[in-house]
Design goal:
- This is Helix-turn-helix domain-containing protein.
- This protein has 69 residues and is an alpha+beta fold.
- The protein has one domain: Multidrug-efflux Transporter Regulator, Chain: A, Domain 2, CATH 1.10.1660.
- Helix content is 39%, strand content 16%.
- A three-stranded antiparallel sheet has the order 1-3-2.
Amino acid sequence: MMKDPNQLTPLVEEKRSALPTAEAARHLNRAPQTLRLWACYESGPIRPVRINGRLAWPVQEIRRVLEGN
């Protein structure tokens, strides 16, 4: 059975160390453009890593923000 591409993997089950912008934004309940602005202005609660010119958002940091720590 194939996984629904619109369904998010819960962060506790996420095996990747970083997520693409669109997925991170859905977890954080923000627009992807908001995360891009955070990256551009270095003003958000999470700093992305850049992999081959693309933004990747550390799962550990997303968890930290959602837990409020």
